[in-house]
Amino acid sequence: MADIILQAQNLRKTFGGLVAVDDVSLTVARGSTHAIIGPNGAGKTTLFNLLSGRYKPTRGSVHYNGRDISALPVYQRAQIGIGRSFQITNIFPNLTVFENARLAAQALGKDSFRFWRRAEMFRRYADRAAEVLAITGLESVAGQLASALPHGGKRKLELAMLLAPDPQVLLLDEPTAGMASEQVPELLTTIDRVRSTGSKTIVLVEHNMNVVMNISDRITVMHQGRLLAEGDPRQIANDKTVQDVYLGELYDLPHDEPKDGHA
User: pTM score, two decimals?
Assistant: First the structure.
C-alpha cells in the first residue's frame, strides 16, 4: 500500500445554498505528483482551498501524515510542512531575487522577527536561498530585482520561495497561469528538478492538459462538485466519461482498445 501523506475524507463545502464540494475523498501518495482537474465550476479550486486551509470544511476532514488538520489555518499548515502558491504571483518586487528567497527561508525559522541582527547571523538562510535558486535555475539572476524578471521567471521565483522553508507538500495553484507557451517547458523542467529530489509531494490544480499529462502520477477529475474519475494519465485520457465531460479535444492522446468501465 502506498505511503499516504495527504488525505481528504468525505469533504463537503457549502456557501449558503451552493454546494461547491460534495462528498469528495482522495489520497495523495508521498513523493507523488497529483493533479486536480475539471471544467470551470467543477469545485477543484474549492477543494484545493480545503486542502491548503484557506477554507474549513462544512463536513469531512483533511489529514496530513495521519494527523487531522481540518481546523488548522494556512499559516499553521505551513509550519508543519505544507506550502502553497497562488494563481497571482506573490513576490516582493522591490527586493532582489536572492532576498526574496532568503526571506522565504527565514520566514518559518526562529529568527523570523529578529530584523536588527547582523546578516552574518543568518548564513544558513542565505545558503538555503542559494540552494533553491539553483534548483529553480535562477542563480544567474540572483542579484536582479524581482520586478525585472519576465512572468515565467516570477513564477519560478515563487516556486523557489515555496521551496525555501523545505515543506514536504507543495500545493501549486495554476503554476502556468499567464505564462506564454514558450515559457511553459522551462517551468516543467524546474518542476522535474523538484520531483527528482524524491522528497517532495506536489498537488496541483492546472488547466494546461499537456502539463498535467506530462508531470502527473495520478489525476483526480472533478465535475459539479463531485469526484468524476481518478487514475493515472493514460487511464484518464482514455476514460470516455472524462472525455465527454471535460477533455474533449484538449488533449489528443492515442486511445487504448475500447473497454467497459471507467478509470
Answer: 0.86
